[in-house]
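Researcher: I'd like a candidate sequence for this fold, 247 residues long. If you have to choose between options at a position, lean toward the conservative one.
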């Protein structure tokens, strides 16, 4: 009887050691997975929600969340421009009430025509991302050309949406929006939304590609597919709900 009891005890200890070894192996695997995952995130800050936003990084899984965090936080946004080595100027506040512009940030060397207007800092940051990560590579890959500049038809306009006296105020009323009408290449080609959106060929494909990419960095993107009022431009803004519109 004593021998049987000792045998059962040894079996229980053996099973316990096996369970302990299995647990140790599983914990080791989990630790390695966590370490590998964190190491991967360190090498891919665009996917890491804890990594500071740098506009030189690719657009990743965490980019939209980081851009959202810039809205209403001008100091943090300008710190992003500094970190990303983007030259900009801070202009004096203007306006009052619903058309007050406390954040007037002007990109110093951005290729915009006929001028480089002051926008809010989040719009400036998104314009930089859109240019470098979408417009420039799409111009090369689809059109075989280099970007010269973008044409715009306005940033600031103290007005309500769709006119009237009771509609919500437009994002243009605070400079939190920009309307892009054309892309010009260094070889002289001008790709215009009014002239090229409804055509066949590479120009229309290019415009649709950069419209789709804009939806990754702007809260609202409106194109000629939205309505007739946008037949000649992209409306890009950083207001409202992040999933406000992409049309």
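Model: Candidate sequence:
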């Amino acid at each position: 009887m004593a021998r049987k009891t000792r045998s059962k005890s040894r079996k229980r200890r053996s099973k316990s050691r096996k369970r302990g070894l299995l647990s140790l192996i599983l914990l080791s695997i989990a630790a390695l997975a966590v370490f590998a995952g964190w190491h991967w995130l360190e090498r891919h800050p665009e996917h890491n929600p804890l990594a500071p936003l740098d506009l030189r990084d690719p657009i990743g899984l965490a980019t939209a969340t980081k851009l959202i965090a810039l809205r209403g936080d001008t100091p943090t946004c300008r710190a992003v421009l500094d970190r990303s080595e983007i030259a900009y100027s801070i202009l004096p506040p203007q306006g009052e009430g619903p058309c007050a512009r406390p954040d007037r940030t002007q990109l110093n060397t951005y290729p915009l025509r006929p001028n480089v207007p002051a926008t809010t800092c989040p719009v400036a940051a998104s314009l930089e991302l859109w240019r470098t990560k979408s417009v420039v590579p799409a111009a090369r890959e689809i059109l075989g050309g280099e970007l010269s500049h973008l044409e715009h038809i306005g940033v600031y306009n103290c007005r309500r949406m769709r006119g009237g006296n009771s509609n919500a105020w437009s994002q243009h009323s605070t400079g939190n929006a920009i309307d892009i009408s054309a892309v010009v290449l260094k070889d002289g080609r001008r790709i215009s939304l009014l002239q090229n959106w409804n055509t066949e060929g590479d120009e229309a494909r290019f415009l649709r590609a950069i419209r789709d990419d804009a939806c990754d960095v702007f809260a609202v993107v409106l194109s000629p597919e939205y309505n007739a009022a946008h037949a000649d431009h992209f409306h890009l803004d950083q207001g409202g709900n992040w999933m406000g519109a992409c049309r």
